[in-house]
Task: inverse folding
């Protein structure tokens, strides 16, 4: 009775032993991957790895030897099938220890505790099995004795592995705790490694899915060391690694991706939610159909075989098969699923696209000055690959694992546990090869993406800067540059597809071998009479349903990593916070008078170089303040900080006593009418471009504004009048026309404060005189800031500020400044002499009296010649 109990315990242990080793290893690996466990600094010692591989090879030999003994015993005793548990123990143990051996052989820096723990679990199991074996079989033949010898040998090998592993771990801990006693006094620099800057390449992903310090010199697993990548991508990856290191675990790392959840999950959209429900139901039904269709064929086969041609048709079984088959056809449930998926995909496409676009538009000027717009667009496009993420997890990864589990159980019920083991073996080999090829293809994919982006960038830059290219006659140079970028792209694409296809073929071979083994085993079993023919037919049809989730596992890993790589750029973009934002619950600005006060304002684009230094002045309500000074002095910057393109570093800017940082940003910007230095238009009609300033303006108001800006007659002279399109950024208009359109926009906007940044620099003096009236109307009663190099434009200003090197060096009215005889006068006379020179050149050949006459007109009326001819770009 006791022997019977021991036999049962032994049988159970035969199943439990290999499973517990595998479970421990998988759990330890998962925990290590999630919490970024790092291999110890001494983990890469080659001698330890080789010793462990040698001992594990010994363990494998004892398992194979024991298996051989069982086969010999089976040939001697046909009733041997009763010891199926022993066969399972051998096969499963072989799979388990082979996986551990491959794990160490593949990884130059293993995380040892994962392995030591698995060996310990294996050791405990082997000790119990070795002790129970003699109790279960008191009378033993030579086969049993041999098996016991192998058991003992295996136990000894595992004991050595466990004890040596623990001893090494303890030794390392002591050694690392007292580095001074053992480490060389000189740092790493002595072995030729350069010190890397903090935060850059500090950690790299290694084969464990964990991070390792690059300084350890483990280049084999440094999948990210990619010298061909542009600096920006290296920066991106450095940020990603830094983020991973700071977050401490992959779980935390993925927390950042949660910003995409509201874009993927339709919280408030009932229709999309119900479509998701339909997709979920169909997915569930498909799991059942995967089994029911081949099973029904098996049932029909068995009924036909049993009938032996007696004319009885299995109508009922056939009817069910027809029903199941129709449901699983592409005109059945798949059609419903495909239709229901469309709104779900469109929802996420729209929400990712519009959120990313909204975010980009809300980012501050410093960001937009740095970024290449082509790259931004590509980041959004690639990020939209995330669109399928929700479905991917819910309706691909989930069903895939369900199918696998159903598959393991169903092939067991069709035949026996060996079939399940074949399936597991194929699965492990397939996933292993899949993981290997994914590593190559992800690396190749990154290069492919970079080359693709670079190609778009080169093309985009050349087209956008066509005028510059043409000024320097660099057309063929740009074509050459572009064709080189296509060559790079083709080379990267070629490498990517090689890695992709070779990996795919290797996996197909594994799949084929698995199919051959399973079908041979099924034929053998049917021939032995241990299973009906119908089961073989069912298996051949069902095998395809098991292969596809297996293929999906590695494909899903590949797809997930591809989705994450592609969306990393969008994530970085979404994580970029605008530097200028409204304070929470900031009130709208209330402008009554329009008094603008700069109070000890300091500002710098780059903290190493101050741009504005202690700037203080007050623009009284309705006053016109002119900013003059040498180029690069900081005039435009004063306007930019007032518009809050940038936040100042010190002091404050107040409008009617309200600090502009404490009011709502939109309301602040709504109060300004800006005419910038280089106005740009959309490539739409003129009338739409002007209406952009005030979307509800009527056509009459637009025409009125254009009249005031002295551009109406010009527009009327165009063949399509107000409907003329203006080209990209307004290139079809001359510089002067562009500025006048821009002034018309400002007039239409009816702002509270007017900002004119070189608004008339490209307009000739004659036209400027025409629009002076318009300016008067625009600026009447409004506080106005004017930047102008043409001093005549600003001589009537209420206040003139002379800006030099970020400071106000003089201020006052034109007359006061002229009287003072300082920098303003220097600027004024410099301009006069420049004008005389230019006029002299322009009037070469004209009589001297005539030239003097013209200069006189220019100086009194504001340099009549300055704008001459500059109205054309
Ligand atoms: N986005 C920026 N990033 C870094 N530095 C900048 C930026 N914009 C301007 N600067 C620098 O700030 C300084 C002041 O520039 P700003 O455009 O305000 O001068 P300005 O007086 O308006 O010149 P100009 O009369 O030529 O328009 C210059 O040295 C310029 O190089």
Result:
């Amino acid at each position: 009775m006791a022997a019977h109990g021991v036999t049962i315990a032994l049988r159970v242990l035969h199943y439990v032993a290999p499973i517990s080793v595998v479970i421990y290893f998988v759990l330890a690996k998962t925990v290590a991957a999630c919490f970024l466990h790092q291999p110890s600094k001494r983990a890469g010692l080659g001698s330890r790895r080789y010793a462990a591989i040698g001992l594990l090879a010994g363990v494998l030999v004892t398992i194979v030897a024991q298996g051989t003994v069982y086969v010999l015993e089976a040939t001697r005793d046909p009733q041997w099938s009763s010891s199926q548990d022993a066969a399972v123990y051998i096969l499963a143990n072989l799979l388990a220890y082979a996986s551990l051996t491959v794990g160490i052989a593949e990884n130059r820096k293993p995380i040892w505790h994962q392995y030591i723990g698995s060996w310990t679990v294996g050791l405990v199991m082997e000790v119990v099995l070795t002790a129970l074996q003699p109790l279960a079989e008191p009378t033993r033949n030579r086969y049993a004795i041999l098996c016991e010898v192998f058991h003992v040998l295996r136990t000894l090998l595992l004991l050595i592995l466990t004890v040596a592993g623990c001893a090494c771990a303890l030794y390392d801990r002591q050694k690392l705790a007292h580095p001074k006693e053992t480490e060389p006094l000189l740092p790493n620099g002595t072995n030729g490694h350069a010190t890397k800057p903090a935060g850059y390449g500090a950690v790299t992903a290694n084969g464990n899915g964990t991070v390792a310090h690059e300084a350890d010199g483990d280049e084999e697993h440094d999948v990210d060391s990619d010298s061909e990548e542009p600096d920006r991508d290296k920066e991106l990856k450095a940020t990603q690694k830094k983020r991973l290191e700071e977050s401490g675990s992959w779980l935390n790392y993925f927390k950042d991706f949660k910003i995409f959840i509201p874009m993927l999950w339709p919280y408030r959209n009932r229709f999309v939610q119900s479509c998701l429900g339909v997709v979920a139901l169909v997915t569930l039904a498909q799991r059942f159909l995967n089994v029911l269709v081949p099973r029904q064929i098996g049932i029909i086969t068995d009924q036909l075989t049993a009938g032996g041609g007696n004319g009885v048709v299995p109508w009922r079984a056939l009817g069910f098969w027809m029903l199941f088959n129709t449901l699983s056809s592409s005109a059945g449930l798949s059609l419903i699923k495909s239709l229901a998926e469309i709104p779900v995909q469109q929802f996420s496409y729209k929400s990712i696209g519009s959120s990313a676009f909204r975010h980009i538009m809300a980012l501050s000027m410093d960001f937009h000055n740095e970024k290449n717009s082509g790259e931004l667009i590509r980041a959004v496009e690639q990020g939209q690959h995330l669109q399928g993420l929700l479905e991917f997890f819910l309706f691909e990864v989930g069903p895939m694992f369900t199918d696998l589990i159903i598959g393991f159980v169903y092939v067991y019920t069709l035949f026996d546990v060996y079939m399940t083991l074949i399936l597991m073996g194929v699965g492990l080999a397939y996933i292993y090869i899949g993981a290997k090829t994914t590593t190559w293809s992800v690396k190749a994919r990154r290069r492919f993406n970079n080359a693709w982006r670079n190609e778009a960038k080169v093309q985009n830059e050349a087209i956008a800067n066509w005028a510059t290219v043409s000024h320097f006659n660099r057309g063929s140079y740009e074509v050459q540059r572009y064709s080189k970028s296509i060559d790079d792209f083709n080379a990267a694409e070629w490498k990517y597809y090689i890695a992709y296809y070779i990996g795919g073929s290797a996996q197909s071979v594994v799949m084929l071998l698995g199919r051959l083994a399973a079908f041979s085993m099924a034929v053998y079993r049917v021939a032995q009479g241990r299973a009906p023919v119908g089961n073989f037919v069912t298996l051949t049809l069902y095998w395809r349903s098991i292969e596809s989730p297996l293929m999906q596992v590695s494909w899903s890993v590949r797809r997930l990593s591809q989705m994450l790589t592609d969306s990393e750029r969008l994530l970085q973009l979404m994580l970029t916070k605008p530097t200028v934002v409204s304070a929470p619950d900031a009130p709208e600005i209330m402008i009554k008078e329009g008094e603008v006060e700069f109070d000890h304002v300091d500002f710098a684009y780059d903290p190493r170089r101050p741009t504005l230094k202690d700037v203080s002045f007050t623009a009284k309500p309705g006053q016109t303040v002119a900013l003059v000074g040498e180029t690069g002095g900081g005039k435009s910057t004063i306007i930019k900080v007032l518009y809050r393109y940038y936040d100042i570093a010190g002091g404050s800017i107040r409008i009617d006593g309200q600090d502009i940082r404490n009011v709502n940003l939109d309301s602040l910007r709504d109060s300004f009418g800006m005419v910038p230095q280089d106005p740009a238009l959309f490539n739409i009609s003129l009338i739409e471009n002007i209406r952009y300033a005030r979307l509800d303006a009527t056509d009459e108001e637009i025409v009125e504004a254009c009249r005031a800006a002295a551009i109406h007659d010009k527009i009327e002279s165009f063949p399509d009048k107000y409907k003329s399109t203006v080209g990209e950024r307004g290139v079809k208009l001359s510089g002067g026309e562009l500025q006048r359109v821009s002034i018309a926009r400002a007039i239409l906007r009816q702002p509270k404060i007017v900002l004119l940044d070189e608004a008339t620099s490209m307009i000739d003096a004659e036209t400027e005189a025409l629009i002076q009236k318009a300016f008067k109307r625009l600026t009447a009663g409004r506080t106005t800031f004017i930047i102008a190099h043409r001093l005549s434009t600003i001589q009537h200003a209420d206040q003139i500020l002379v800006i030099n090197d970020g400071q106000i060096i003089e201020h006052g009215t034109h007359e006061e400044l002229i009287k003072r005889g300082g920098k303003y006068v220097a600027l004024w006379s410099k301009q006069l002499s420049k004008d005389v020179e230019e006029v002299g050149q322009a009037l070469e050949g004209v009589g001297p009296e005539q030239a003097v006459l013209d200069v006189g007109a220019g100086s009194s009326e504001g340099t009549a010649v300055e704008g001459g001819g500059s109205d054309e770009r």
In short: Residues 180-229, 845-873 have pLDDT under 50 and may be disordered. The pocket of adenosine-5'-triphosphate is lined by residues 369, 605-606, 611, 631-637 (CB under 6 Å). Residues 475-527 form the longest helix (53 residues).
